[in-house]
Design brief:
Blueprint (H helix, E strand, L loop, with lengths): L7 E3 L6 E11 L2 E9 L5 E2 L43 E3 L4 E3 L4 E2 L29
Antiparallel strand pairs: 1-2, 2-3, 3-4, 5-6, 6-7
């Protein structure tokens, strides 16, 4: 969930449900603040405390735990047998090829000759230089 600032307002000047327009205020090249105005009529608000934000309506008896969990369509490792993850998959700027079958393939293809790529190993750290005496 993001911590975005609210943008829907009930403008006291025009009486409309509108959006809050935020523009940066500068002193030369230094940002010194923010101007806030109604997107419909241009009414300028002095500060954020004076902005009448629109409140979200909630139904009594319902809360966050009543929202169903997101459905899981795919298994966790369902893409594990794609050519993209195969040891024989070779990519260059012009074509993608299978080095085992010697033919052109796509990254999302699958075949019975799949062999997973070995896990990348971390490069060995070079020994620190010996001090010169």
């Amino acid at each position: 969930m993001t911590n975005a600032k609210p943008v829907e307002i009930l403008c006291p000047a025009c009486g409309q449900e509108s959006l809050l327009k935020r523009t940066s205020r500068y002193d030369g090249f230094t940002r010194i603040g923010e101007n806030m105005s109604c997107a419909s009529c241009g009414h300028v608000f002095a500060d954020e405390a004076s902005v009448p934000f629109k409140t979200k309506k909630t139904l009594a008896g319902f809360d966050r735990k009543d929202v169903p969990a997101a459905p899981r369509v795919f298994r966790q490792n369902e893409n594990a047998r794609l050519c993209r993850y195969c040891e024989n998959y070779v990519v260059n700027p012009f074509v993608q090829r299978c080095s085992r079958l010697k033919k052109e393939v796509e990254a999302t293809d699958t075949c019975e000759h799949f062999k997973p790529k070995p896990e990348p190993t971390a490069p060995a750290k070079p020994a620190p230089p010996k001090p010169v005496l």
